[in-house]
């Protein structure tokens, strides 16, 4: 399958959108080698990341992952489901932590759907109060409220055979949910202040970082609307579960931002990438993107070293400026959904336990696994999950 092509967007719009969460560039590109042609003169040495070996990795990564950079099993499983779902007319619910790329996934699904030639219109359900969100979504008639000097169609009408993307749908006000449910069921609605019934044709893709089933139990989200949206649920994996993808993404961002911000070709020192490997990335791809851009702009040389790391990431492997309890407390603030906070807490515990056990035994996996009370195969699986190399802990 060729890389994704998003229609009805200018090249600059596509570049800005696709870069934001790790989606590969869109356009008439056949192989990753073409994407990296400008770097083809680099060697495959320690500082020549954009060499033929990386091009080969991207050639493998791009077609298999629905245009998203990565080769991990977690991403490939999600991408395969996205491809199947894109060809249908069924509603899709994208689930995942903040920063995992839900909006970019929605755009990729639309670009590969039968509705690709029609518009994709996003609605940020968390950005507006209920009355304004209703007017934005359904439109209004002249005189419907103070300031409504003319009639205005809503996004649900303007989508006109395309895809309506309900972003942050978990934040949709409870008072607006019945009207949206009826519109989706009947494929028709009335503008605010209107009496005329208007039919519409749209495919629905929704996204949330909330646990909607829990919100249903708490009566903060209608169960019937949840079932209407949750026809094909797709879980986007957090970066910590995408084994092997972090380095591809980090170098992809670095190349893109160097071209945009500095005009220089910079590379990461291997120790920086090792620290990246052991960091839990609670902000996922968006956090990685911001860290890479900051380092690419502020680093003085062509080689980005540990001196350029943000303060919270500059500690050596196996040691941290914060205790486990201090880091874990960040997930108890109530900012994340229960499921997401629980998963991040468990991942933090696993990573901290693995680091401490390996550090205690000098990187000896057999002894570490014996202390942990698990077999070596399971211990190695956990190391792969958290992108840890035992060699880093030898000699501590």
- What is the topology, as strand order, of the major beta sheet? 2-5-8-1-9
- Rounded mean pLDDT is 80
From the 3D structure, determine the CATH topology of the largest domain: Helicase, Ruva Protein, domain 3
Summarize the main sheet: 5 strands, parallel
In whole angstroms, how far apart are the ends? 47 Å
Strand content: 5-15%
Shape: elongated
**What is the helical fraction, as a range of percent?**
40-55%
> pLDDT under 50 segments (min length 5)?
1-55, 316-321
| Structural domains: how many | 2
Structural class per helix/strand content? alpha/beta
The total count of helices amounts to: 17
Order of helices and strands: HHHHEHEHEEHEHEEEHHEHEHHEHHHH
CATH first level of the largest domain: which class?
Answer: Mainly Alpha
- Gyration radius over CA: 23 Å
Number of E-type strands:
11
**Name given to the CATH architecture of the largest domain:** Orthogonal Bundle
Q: Overview of this structure, please?
A:
The protein has 396 residues and is of the alpha/beta class. The chain has 2 domains: 90-235, Rossmann fold, CATH 3.40.50.300; 240-393, Helicase, Ruva Protein, domain 3. The protein has 17 helices and 11 strands. Strands 2-5-8-1-9 form a 5-stranded parallel sheet. The protein has helices at 11-19, 32-35, 52-64, 73-86, 102-111, 130-138, 155-158, 177-186, 212-217, 223-229, 245-262, 270-278, 284-298, 324-329, 338-360, 365-372, 376-385, and strands spanning 92-95, 120-124, 139-140, 152-153, 163-167, 188-189, 198-199, 203-208, 232-235, 267-268, 303-304. The model is unreliable at 1-55 and 316-321 (pLDDT under 50). It is 44% helix and 9% strand. β6 (188-189) and β7 (198-199) form a beta hairpin.
């Amino acid at each position: 399958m060729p890389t994704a092509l998003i229609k009805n967007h200018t090249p600059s719009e596509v570049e800005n959108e696709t870069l934001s969460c790790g989606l590969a560039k869109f356009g008439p590109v056949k192989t990753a080698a073409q994407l990296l042609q400008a770097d083809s003169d680099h060697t495959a040495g320690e500082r020549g990341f954009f060499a033929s070996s990386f091009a080969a990795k991207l050639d493998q990564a791009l077609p298999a992952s629905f245009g998203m950079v990565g080769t991990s099993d977690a991403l490939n499983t999600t991408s395969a489901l996205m491809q199947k779902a894109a060809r249908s007319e069924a509603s899709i619910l994208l689930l995942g932590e903040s920063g995992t790329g839900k909006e970019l996934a929605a755009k990729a699904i639309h670009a590969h759907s039968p509705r690709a030639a029609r518009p994709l219109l996003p609605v940020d359900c968390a950005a507006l109060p209920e009355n304004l969100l209703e007017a934005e979504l359904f439109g209004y008639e002249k005189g419907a409220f103070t300031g409504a000097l003319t009639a205005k169609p809503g996004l649900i009408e303007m989508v006109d055979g395309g895809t309506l993307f309900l972003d942050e749908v978990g934040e949709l006000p409870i008072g607006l949910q019945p009207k949206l449910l009826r519109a989706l069921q009947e494929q028709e609605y009335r503008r605010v202040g209107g009496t005329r019934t208007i039919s519409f044709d749209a495919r629905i893709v929704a996204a949330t970082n909330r646990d909607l089933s829990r919100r249903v139990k708490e009566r903060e989200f209608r169960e019937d609307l949840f079932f209407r949206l949750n026809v094909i649920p797709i879980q986007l994996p957090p970066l910590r579960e995408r084994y092997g993808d972090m380095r591809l993404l980090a170098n992809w961002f670095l190349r893109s931002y160097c071209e945009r911000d500095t005009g220089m070709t910079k590379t990461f020192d291997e120790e920086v990438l090792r620290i990246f490997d052991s960091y839990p990335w609670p902000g996922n791809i968006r956090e990685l993107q911001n860290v890479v851009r900051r380092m690419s702009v502020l680093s003085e040389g062509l080689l980005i070293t540990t001196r350029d790391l943000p303060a919270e990431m500059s500690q050596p492997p196996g040691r941290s400026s914060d205790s486990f309890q201090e880091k874990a407390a960040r997930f108890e603030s109530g900012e994340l959904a229960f499921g997401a906070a629980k998963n991040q807490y468990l991942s933090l515990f696993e990573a901290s336990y693995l680091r401490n056990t390996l550090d205690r035994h000098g990187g000896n996996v057999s002894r570490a696994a014996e202390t942990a009370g698990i077999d070596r195969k399971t211990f190695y699986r956990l190391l792969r999950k958290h992108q840890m190399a035992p060699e880093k802990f030898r000699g501590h």
